[in-house]
Amino acid sequence: GYRKSPVYELPAAVLKKGLRDSPAVKWRLERVDYDSEPLSLRFVQQSRFLKFPDTIRVQVYPLGVEQATLALYSQSQLGRKDFGVNLARMKRWLKRLEPHQVPEKGA
Q: Can you give the pTM of this predicted structure?
């Protein structure tokens, strides 16, 4: 399902670079966007056992000069059920960014 994206205390280009270079992101991933769009990333990752491809897309959105947010989408390309793998992947990626999150108002 969809969730509200956090705001990060990072410029958009720095947020993209942090995602692109993260060890969590590099594990069994093939980057397939080749910087075709300045604030986008696209990867393919094969499932551990059956080697089915999953597509992961990231779009970073600047919020002024020093803050950014993102849209993160992970989807299985084959099969009907992913056993929660895509959601778990997105949670892992977002967890690594938590130190840079702007606290929500009222939290």
A: 0.83
